[in-house]
UniProtKB/TrEMBL annotation:
<keyword id="KW-0472">Membrane</keyword>
<keyword id="KW-1133">Transmembrane helix</keyword>
<comment type="similarity">
    <text>Belongs to the TAFA family.</text>
</comment>
<keyword id="KW-0812">Transmembrane</keyword>
<keyword id="KW-0732">Signal</keyword>
<dbReference type="GO" id="GO:0007186">
    <property type="term" value="P:G protein-coupled receptor signaling pathway"/>
</dbReference>
<dbReference type="Pfam" id="PF12020">
    <property type="entry name" value="TAFA"/>
</dbReference>
<dbReference type="InterPro" id="IPR020350">
    <property type="entry name" value="Chemokine-like_TAFA"/>
</dbReference>
<dbReference type="GO" id="GO:0001664">
    <property type="term" value="F:G protein-coupled receptor binding"/>
</dbReference>
<dbReference type="GO" id="GO:0005615">
    <property type="term" value="C:extracellular space"/>
</dbReference>
<dbReference type="InterPro" id="IPR040329">
    <property type="entry name" value="TAFA-5"/>
</dbReference>
<dbReference type="GO" id="GO:0048018">
    <property type="term" value="F:receptor ligand activity"/>
</dbReference>
<protein>
    <recommendedName>
        <fullName>TAFA chemokine like family member 5</fullName>
    </recommendedName>
</protein>
<feature type="transmembrane region" description="Helical">
    <location>
        <begin position="6"/>
        <end position="23"/>
    </location>
</feature>
């Protein structure tokens, strides 16, 4: 009798999981991002110049209302649209935790300075 109850419970749990997966797959079609998330589509690195690496990446984002694609902690992310409109890039927190953020003089991007003095510059086109 006890074994029969366990079997029915496991069967019910399996059906429940299957239904949840089925509903989830209907809501998010293949290739569709969940709201508020981003993914890197392409990443290109050019190290042809000595002591300099130029990296370009393209991200695809599904941002919520009032948000726009940006960068947080060196990863693509949805950020408040006002940050981009005002070009106050460091408000996105684009650098890693141990790095310092500074705006470029013409507000065309920002720099992330590592503790050892290495500087990463990001420009926005």
């Amino acid at each position: 009798m006890q074994l029969l109850r366990v079997a029915w419970a496991l069967t019910g749990a399996a059906i429940c999981c299957f239904l949840i997966l089925l509903i989830h797959s209907r809501l998010l079609k293949e290739g569709q991002l969940a709201a508020g998330t981003c993914e890197i589509v392409t990443l290109d690195r050019d190290s042809s110049q000595p002591r300099r690496t130029i990296a370009r990446q393209t991200a695809r984002c599904a941002c919520k209302k009032g948000q726009i694609a940006g960068t947080t902690r060196a990863r693509p992310a949805c950020v408040d649209a006002g940050i981009v409109r005002k070009k106050q890039w460091c408000e996105m927190v684009p650098c890693l935790e141990d790095e310092g953020c500074d705006l470029l003089v013409n507000k065309s991007g920002w720099t992330c300075t590592q503790p050892g003095g290495r500087v990463k510059t990001t420009t926005v086109s």
